[in-house]
């Protein structure tokens, strides 16, 4: 597997030369792509050189240890160092999802269970908002439709890293971690509307999209059909006397996005375009994944989105992830934002699956 690194040295040198040319930076999209690939290769090559150097140092230390036994400890320390570099290199050689370093847009929709499902959608919103706070990210509600009891029939949340330090390393940016939240989340608890104290099961769906920048997705205004209407609140009553809500239809794909949270039509249009760009980027990425073949696709991410991915059992204070087998009895803490251990299990399962696929090739 490591032999492939030697073939990357030429590509790395070529990228370095191209990035030194002023004309490369005249095209922002090209420059961004080249910079991302250069950074990826730099991490691989630096670790590979560290791994090789550690091997040479071990050989030298063994020769010294044969003459002076006190050097035996040095051999052991260098071996540990080389094994750590080897593991890092194995992981770096796994092809990355190019959208992992992007911000994320989450769409949470209530499902089976009526008002109880809408209340659970509100719980999920709070969980992701507090998780974002713990990670040092910012979050913003782009659009929402509330239910009569204060839950959400649907809510769209944007989660953004505050700077480059929030994106350092694979899986540190919002989408690289939150992408594993996509799917059906099932809740088991006694609803507030239940008078007999019986436990009910309901569900809410989460769709996670990488937020696209303008240079990632080009949208032709001629491909858009834009309609305006009045915002509505719980029960469908009008909450605005002007036509400020916006619905955008992307005619070539049939994707429809609507926003009504902002007071002005222009603001709602901008928010809707953010969501539309994210959806178009997701479609393009799915097509690219399909073209790449099954061997390079994550086993965690390709679970049918119609299937439940996780169960939140309130009577037992238990959370169970059905893809990874993760189980813990701290549901109250997880819903309060302590989601990282659950996400880490998904990240590790995803990495192991992709690593196995690469080694099989």
Explain what this protein looks like in three dimensions.
- This protein is of the alpha+beta class and 361 residues long.
- It is built from eight helices and eleven strands.
- It has helices at residues 4-19, 28-67, 72-92, 115-135, 174-178, 265-292, 331-335, 340-360; strands at residues 104-110, 138-146, 152-160, 183-189, 200-210, 224-229, 245-250, 255-259, 308-313, 318-321, 327-328.
- The strands form two sheets. It has an eight-stranded mixed β-sheet with strand order 2-3-1-5-4-9-10-11, sandwiched between helices. Strands 6-7-8 form a three-stranded antiparallel β-sheet, with helices on one face.
- The termini are close together.
Which helices and strands occur, and which strands form pairs?
Blueprint: H1 4-19, H2 28-67, H3 72-92, E1 104-110, H4 115-135, E2 138-146, E3 152-160, H5 174-178, E4 183-189, E5 200-210, E6 224-229, E7 245-250, E8 255-259, H6 265-292, E9 308-313, E10 318-321, E11 327-328, H7 331-335, H8 340-360
Parallel strand pairs: 4-9
Antiparallel strand pairs: 1-3, 1-5, 2-3, 4-5, 6-7, 7-8, 9-10, 10-11
Helix pairs in contact: 1-2, 2-3
Task: Offer a concise description of the structure.
The chain is of the alpha+beta class.
